Amino acid sequence: MPDLFAIIGTFLELSKEHPLDLTVWYHPSAKWSDLSSILKRKRHLVHTLNILWPNTLYKAPKETNMWHSQRYYTAVSTILSTCGPLRDLRKLTFDYNVAFNRQQFTALHLPACTRILSNIHLSPEDLSTDNMTVWPLTAISTNAPIGHVVSTLGSFPHLSYLEFEETSDSEHDISHFPSLPKQPRHLRKISFNRSYSRGIESLLRLLAPQIAHLHLWMSSQFADLISTLRELSNLRELRLEFSLGTPESGSILESGVKINSLQVLEIRTPYSATDVASNRPSIHIATFLWALGNLYPRIHSVSITGFRSILILAREFFWSLSTVDSLSLKSFSRGSHPTTITLPTLSEFNLDNPPALKSFDMPNLHCLQIQNVKFSNNIRNIGYRGLYRIFIQAEEPSGLLFLRPEEYPELSEVHLELDGIHYIWRVTSLPHLVLITITSRTFLNPQGNLQTILGA
Predict the structure, then answer these.
(1) I want to staple 289 with a disulfide (CB 3.0 to 4.6 A). Which of 92, 281, 317, 364 is the partner?
(2) Based on the structure, what is the number of domains in the chain?
(3) d(Cα 109, Cα 132) in Å, to the nearest integer?
(4) DSSP class of residue 431?
(5) Mind telling me which Gene3D superfamilies this protein's record contains (predicted)?
(6) In Å, how far are 196, 415, 436 from 421, measured between CA atoms?
(7) Which of 52, 82, 117 is the last residue of a domain?
(8) Average model confidence (pLDDT) for the chain?
(9) Which among 369, 366, 318 has a CA at the least distance from the CA of 342?
């Protein structure tokens, strides 16, 4: 077995005076004392410290977990205590969300130049204004009330991402906030995993010029949201998640405001809260989508999931997409009397309803991702001879996949994801084909789980 410590020492010497990135897969039995003796001579060159979860077979959960957080904290504390202070440490990262408290940060004695780039959860108690600690954080998540967070933003001069987690506290009565104690000039991305409220609206208006990425949970305050979005003049990415309730009164008035900065729009709703049950939410959703299309005339990427009647609700919205080049539609229905939707600039399309392809006219389509393919008929005579790349996810346990060369003359990549073990792909003469990938959700059997028949 090679002497890993000797190898590490050799490469450290070869690195001379170049800045070092130190990545540690922490484990309690690791010989930190041996490692520290090697690193001590070069510790002034460590600019980045990455702490990763040690077991590749079991990953720590993405959500914040106190037990895992303690393990990560112990790793950092052990490294700093055995290797000595890393006085030029610029970046500290973790591969999962962690929760540290004020006392733990103080005990680490991090140098002033250090920035923690991973998302750190802070409790309402850690955000207390009694002791205005300057935190070296760039991303935080918290379940504290919005007003409480606003009063402490001056303690986060490097903050670029702020996430509000779900809370039971009602904030609907908050109508305004005082001026920020100190403008968080790096803050660009905000996520709200709680229902839209007056408190959220007030904070968005307070930070309007600098917000570039926004994630919101919505129920029915469509008019209020559109009014607020018109003030976010530099927004580049908007993600909306809906749980449809009874629409509130108030109409969306037409405005001459146009925001050309928005590039990405994503709209999702839980499948159980679609527009099937009632016509009233459908009418309001259609109006809301029309207002979004009117407000953002230069969207490049659109993703909509969970609205069954989206082809009917969003007709005017789709017609307004004059610059879109990527579209994803999931969990929707084609409808009995669909209208053809023309998208002249679209180059990438992702959908999970193969028959709905006939509802679109996309003359510049080059990449097609299609799920729930049950028969070769789903991908036959679709009329897109300019396709360069196709992704097919076949859902049935068996079937025949057949790509006619006359229908796909420019195809250079074929990607297949199979759900069963009895697929037959009839390989045909595709003159420009250079890449084939085949994946399956089932384990391979001794004969293989894909039968291939050569020939035209």
Answers:
(1) 317
(2) 2
(3) 16
(4) T
(5) Ribonuclease Inhibitor (3.80.10.10)
(6) 46, 17, 18
(7) 117
(8) 81
(9) 318
401 part of a folded domain: yes
Task: Name the region of 372 (left: φ>0; alpha: ψ -120 to 50; beta: rest).
Answer: left
Long-range contacts of residues 352-358, Cβ cutoff 8 Å, at least 24 apart: 353/329, 354/378, 354/379, 356/311, 356/329, 356/332, 357/382, 358/334, 358/382
For residue 114 the two structure tokens come to: 């250090």
Rounded CA gap, 10 and 13, in Å?
A: 5
Which of 297, 275, 276 is closest to 286 using CA atoms? 275
Residues 6+ apart with CB under 8 A from 436: 413, 414, 415, 416
What Å distances lie between residue 442 and 397, 399, 423, 452, CA to CA? 10, 15, 12, 17
Q: Alpha helices, DSSP H only, in 374-432?
A: none
Does residue 177 sit within a domain?
A: no
Q: Is the dihedral of CA 47, 53, 56, 60 positive or negative?
A: negative
Name the residue with tokens 């591969």: 95
pTM above 0.90, yes or no: no
CB neighbour list of residue 49: distance below 8 Å, 6 or more residues apart: 22, 24, 76, 79, 86, 89, 91, 92, 93
pLDDT tens digits for range 380-404: 778 888 999 999 888 765 566 778 8
pLDDT tens-digit profile of 193-248?
Answer: 988 888 898 899 989 999 999 999 887 778 888 999 999 999 999 999 987 554 55
d(CA 421, CA 448): 8
Asked whether residue 64 is domain-assigned, the answer is yes
Using CB atoms within 10 Å of the CB of residue 256, give its burial: 0 to 12 exposed, 13 to 18 middle, 19+ buried: exposed
Within-domain flag for 84: yes
| 456: containing domain | 366-456
